[in-house]
Structures are given as structure tokens and as C-alpha cells.
Amino acid sequence: MTRGQRRQDEVTVVRTGPDAEKLRRGSTYPECRRGRCHLAAYIGVMGPQDGVDYVLRAADVIVHEFGRTDIAFTLMGNRRLL
Fold this sequence. Notes:
Elements: E1 38-43, H1 52-65, E2 71-76
Parallel strand pairs: 1-2
């Protein structure tokens, strides 16, 4: 509201995300973890507005500052240019 100079009655919040009622654990694919115990994955559009840079910075902290070697990172998707 502050950024767009809008009143509360002019603003609608639209949340996106998976429907928790439809989520079901599927088959596991240990090979995707590439020998690690854990896998962190990002699947989606990789445009400047999508926050992929946060994933990269978090991976850097996890590996280089925390010294974790038991986690693999996978990023999948298309790059969108604005």
C-alpha cells in the first residue's frame, strides 16, 4: 500500500502455493541427492524477480560458513529476461 500509494480497500493479497490437501509424498530418488543425505531444490522460473539469488546465497552460507557437506542443491527451470 505504501509503495503504490493505495488504500486498504484497493488492495488484494493473492497468495500462491501448493494445496496442502493435495500434497502427497511420492517415490524417493536417492540418486538425485548425489551421495548426500539432503537435497534442497528450486523448481520454477529463474527471473530477476523470482529470488533465485537468495537460494544461491543461502547455499553459499550453508556450505562455506556452516561447513555442511551433507546437502546437495539443484535448481531447475527457465530463465526469464525482463
